[in-house]
């Protein structure tokens, strides 16, 4: 079970230095925060020199604190004309500050400096204080800060990246020994790239011995301020004993990808790749984007809540928070999707669930800007209609038009996107270093080193996968006239949902009909939708006679789902090679599987495409580019398209 996040307490020493009462230590030297960051961590890692003219450079820091090391690194990157193309800064923090306290803690250090505007940008982008990985982007995505909220002893092993430099910060080994253990240094060694360096302000004996045992060479140099000595060094193990090497970018002759499908998954993948400078050819069987399930008038978005913070809850939390940041970024760049005002109300199934979830939210110490338990009276006030019972409110949940989001992401891709409609992919074949996509007539359609399958039900078939089982679920939406729920103020959901649209119509649904291919609107599905929402909103108009039911408008979409209800996101396995090596792989883990170079999938999103599409696209782009993963490794494994193959290998049933 996820541990609740305990925020930092803001305090200052008499000299104005930020101080932690919990660890009885200061956040930076009283001699100067920026000066310490530049001397210890930048100079100690030979930066900016080592990142110059590189496409990607990754820094991993233990202990984000008040963010001065990140701000100093960002400022150095901005000032360097030979800077790397993309700077990734990954930092762990067990006790993060609130945004307001972060501003107050860092203000004295950045006042009257060129870094002050950067500190404001950081505070404006500061995430909600919930556990997990939070990816923030600056400089149009060329500077990425990945914050890992949680205890480094548990979170470091879940990261997947190739670090070029380590900033070993955090409170002193005497005050915070848990951050300076052999296990921590071993976790860092697992992530160290070739020629990776480190720097730390301390020269404690236990730190020297722990680093050395993990494969790092060190040397003592003059310390900063009142410190007599500090340590710098590099990763130089005598033997290569790692089971898996840290990720590297996919080797390609040209940064060109084909994306099959232009629904939520495909358009998100297009935008995330073009944002990194990739040229993308999109193939769509329809004459325009978002014609299948992504063409629904609106969709709701919110995290999934559970009493034990399950894997599904953690994945939807990560997707929800990333989507909010990503959509805001699109809007700032002038690519606005149509979405409603913030706020979504979930009605509990019964009073027992309402009580249990309220207890769970308190145990996890979720902040109110993430989720808030509400009584029946509070829920009625929020909805502006009578409700069946209380539940919980998502202040940043709501509804959005999927088609408008797809359009916004394609528009943001601009000249790097080639759109091809009325083209249906039938199969792919490897030729040299490229993949050729063929149509049903056997003619070649397009070729590129990378193909991303975002075509839902057809993805596994076109890619030739045998161990990627999915099913089709028919979903019928019902559009109710204005009189049905004219007072409803926010989307309300539970067993069903009701979304008030700008034109006065209320969207309800959706039916859940497994393996039902019927494309005609059905009165029984309309009745089912209306009855479900009436159980949440008792005043919903139920006087629907047969004639009125027949006249109701609606829409049918077919969702693609897996048996575990999680999507397929990531690199495809080489199924044939894995099956040939069944005996060796019977006890394998996902990183042990052979992968098919250049093939990736983003499909089987079910009814959560709005939550998963943006994060899934960022994950795939990160895998292709060899960048740090935007979520924990165990969540990547839960989404892995090869997970069903892995189960078959373990059970001895792979064929």
TrEMBL record:
Residues 260-655 are annotated as: FAD-dependent cmnm(5)s(2)U34 oxidoreductase. It comes from Paraburkholderia diazotrophica. GO terms for biological process: methylation; tRNA wobble base modification. GO terms for molecular function: flavin adenine dinucleotide binding; oxidoreductase activity, acting on the CH-NH group of donors; tRNA (5-methylaminomethyl-2-thiouridylate)(34)-methyltransferase activity. The lineage of its organism: Bacteria, Pseudomonadati, Pseudomonadota, Betaproteobacteria, Burkholderiales. Residues 1-236 are annotated as: tRNA (mnm(5)s(2)U34)-methyltransferase. Residues 116-233 form the MnmC-like methyltransferase domain. This is tRNA 5-methylaminomethyl-2-thiouridine biosynthesis bifunctional protein MnmC. Residues 257-622 form the FAD dependent oxidoreductase domain. NCBIfam families: MnmC_Cterm, PRK01747.1-2, PRK01747.1-4, tRNA_MNMC2. It is found in: Cytoplasm. It catalyses: 5-aminomethyl-2-thiouridine(34) in tRNA + S-adenosyl-L-methionine = 5-methylaminomethyl-2-thiouridine(34) in tRNA + S-adenosyl-L-homocysteine + H(+). Gene3D superfamilies: D-Amino Acid Oxidase, subunit A, domain 2, FAD/NAD(P)-binding domain, Vaccinia Virus protein VP39. Catalyzes the last two steps in the biosynthesis of 5-methylaminomethyl-2-thiouridine (mnm(5)s(2)U) at the wobble position (U34) in tRNA. Catalyzes the FAD-dependent demodification of cmnm(5)s(2)U34 to nm(5)s(2)U34, followed by the transfer of a methyl group from S-adenosyl-L-methionine to nm(5)s(2)U34, to form mnm(5)s(2)U34. Its cofactor is FAD. InterPro entries: FAD-dep_OxRdtase, FAD/NAD-bd_sf, MnmC-like_methylTransf, SAM-dependent_MTases_sf, tRNA_MAMT_biosynth_bifunc_MnmC, tRNA_MNMC2, tRNA_S-uridine_synth_MnmC_C. HAMAP family: MnmC. Its EC number is 2.1.1.61, 1.5.-.-. In the N-terminal section; belongs to the methyltransferase superfamily. tRNA (mnm(5)s(2)U34)-methyltransferase family. Keywords: Cytoplasm, FAD, Flavoprotein, Methyltransferase, Multifunctional enzyme, Oxidoreductase, S-adenosyl-L-methionine, Transferase, tRNA processing. GO terms for cellular component: cytoplasm.
């Amino acid at each position: 079970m996820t541990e609740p996040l305990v925020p930092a307490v803001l305090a200052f020493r008499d000299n104005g230095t930020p101080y932690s009462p919990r660890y009885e230590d200061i956040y930076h030297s009283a001699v100067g925060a920026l000066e310490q960051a530049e001397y210890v961590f930048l100079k100690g890692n030979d930066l900016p020199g080592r990142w110059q003219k590189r496409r990607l450079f990754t820094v991993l820091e233990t202990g984000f604190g008040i963010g001065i090391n990140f701000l100093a690194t960002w400022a150095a990157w901005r000032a360097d004309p030979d800077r790397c193309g993309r700077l990734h800064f990954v930092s762990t923090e067990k006790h993060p500050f609130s945004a307001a306290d972060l501003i107050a803690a860092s203000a004295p250090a950045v006042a009257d400096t060129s870094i002050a505007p950067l500190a404001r940008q950081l505070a404006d982008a500061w995430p909600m204080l919930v556990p997990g990985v939070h990816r923030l982007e600056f400089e149009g995505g060329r500077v990425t800060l990945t914050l890992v909220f949680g205890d480094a002893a548990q979170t470091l092993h879940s990261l997947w990246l190739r670090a070029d430099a380590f900033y070993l910060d955090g409170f002193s080994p005497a005050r915070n020994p848990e951050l300076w253990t052999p296990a921590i240094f071993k976790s860092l060694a697992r992530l160290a790239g070739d020629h990776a360096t480190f720097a730390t302000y301390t020269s404690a004996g236990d730190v020297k011995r722990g680093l050395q045992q993990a494969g790092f060479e060190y040397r003592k140099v003059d310390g900063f301020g009142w410190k007599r000595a500090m340590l710098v060094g590099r990763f130089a193990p005598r033997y290569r004993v790692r089971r898996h090497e840290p990720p590297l970018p996919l080797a390609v002759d040209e940064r060109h990808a084909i994306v099959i499908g232009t629904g939520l998954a495909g358009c998100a993948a297009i935008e995330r790749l073009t944002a990194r400078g990739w040229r993308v050819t999109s193939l769509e069987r329809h004459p325009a984007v978002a014609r299948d399930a992504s063409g629904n008038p609106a969709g709701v978005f919110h995290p999934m809540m559970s009493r034990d913070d399950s894997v599904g809850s953690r994945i939807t939390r990560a997707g929800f928070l990333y989507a909010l940041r990503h959509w805001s970024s699109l809007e700032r760049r002038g690519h606005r999707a149509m979405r409603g005002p913030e706020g979504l109300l979930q009605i509990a199934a019964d009073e027992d669930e309402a009580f249990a979830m309220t207890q769970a939210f308190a145990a996890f110490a979720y902040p109110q800007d993430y989720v808030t338990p509400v009584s029946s009276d509070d829920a009625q006030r929020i909805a502006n209609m009578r409700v069946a019972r209380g539940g919980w409110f998502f202040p940043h949940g709501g509804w959005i038009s999927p088609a408008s989001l797809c359009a916004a992401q394609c528009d943001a891709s601009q000249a790097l996107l080639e759109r091809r409609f009325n083209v249906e992919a039938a199969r792919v074949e490897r030729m040299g270093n490229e993949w050729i996509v063929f149509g049903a007539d056997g003619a070649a359609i397009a070729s590129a080193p990378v193909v991303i399958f975002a075509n839902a039900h057809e993805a596994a078939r076109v890619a030739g996968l045998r161990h990627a089982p999915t099913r089709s679920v028919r979903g019928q939406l019902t559009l109710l006239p204005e009189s049905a729920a004219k007072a409803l103020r926010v989307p309300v959901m539970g067993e069903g949902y009701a979304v008030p649209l700008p034109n006065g119509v209320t969207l309800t649904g959706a039916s859940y009909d497994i393996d039902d291919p019927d494309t005609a609107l059905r009165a029984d599905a309309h009745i089912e939708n209306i009855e479900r929402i009436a159980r949440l909103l008792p005043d919903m108009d139920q006087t629907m006679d047969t004639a009125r039911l027949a006249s109701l408008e609606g829409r049918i979409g077919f969702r693609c789902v897996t048996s575990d209800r999680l999507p397929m996101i990531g690199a495809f396995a080489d199924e044939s090679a894995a099956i040939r090596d069944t005996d060796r792989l019977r006890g394998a883990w996902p990183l042990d599987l052979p992968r098919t170079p250049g093939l990736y999938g983003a499909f089987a999103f079910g009814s959560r495409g709005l939550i998963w599409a943006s994060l899934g696209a960022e994950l795939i782009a990160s895998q292709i580019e060899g960048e740090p993963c935007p979520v924990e490794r165990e969540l990547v494994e839960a989404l892995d398209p090869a997970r069903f193959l892995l189960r078959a290998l373990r059970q001895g049933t792979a064929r």
